[in-house]
Design brief:
It is built from 6 helices and 5 strands, in the order H-H-E-E-E-E-H-H-E-H-H. By secondary structure, the chain is an alpha+beta fold. The protein has one domain (9-127): Nonspecific Lipid-transfer Protein, Chain A, CATH 3.30.1050.10. Strand 2 and strand 3 form a beta hairpin. The protein is globular and about 35 Å long. The two termini are 20 Å apart.
Length: 128
């Protein structure tokens, strides 16, 4: 089942992340390194918002919504659909985006730094 929403073209990136986490060894490694539930709230060019999450606390899965049912995200990243596309393709750096105000982080800011290796795995899938 695809996580892509047509109104948020970059949401296809969540399918790439899910694909990168299909391998059990990769999934366990990501959970060990991530240790958190990461939420992404993307704003599209019509000004509407939608959220997705990556559970790197327990399951190593990707889904729609801020967190799996009954759970809360440890960190939420808020950015535009266009900026998420740049992030997932490797054309932008999260730290620079944060400094420029293009990426807002709610919750555990240090946890957000643990997301890098997962995004890199998705970027390598995007280049195939």
């Amino acid at each position: 089942m695809s996580l892509k929403e047509d109104a948020w073209p970059s949401s296809a990136g969540f399918d790439l992340i899910a694909d990168a986490l299909k391998d059990d060894a990769q999934k366990q490694d990501a959970i060990k390194k991530g240790g958190n539930i990461f939420a992404f709230t993307l704003k599209n060019d019509q000004g509407k918002e939608e959220s997705w999450h990556i559970d790197l606390k327990e399951t190593g899965t990707v889904g729609k919504g801020l967190a799996p049912q009954g759970k809360k995200p440890g960190v939420t990243l808020v950015l535009s659909d266009v900026e998420f596309a740049k992030l997932i393709s490797g054309k932008a750096n999260a730290q620079n985006m944060f400094m420029q105000g293009k990426l807002k982080i709610k919750g555990n800011m240090m946890a957000a730094t643990k997301l890098g290796p997962i995004l890199e795995k998705a970027q390598s899938k995007a280049k195939l």
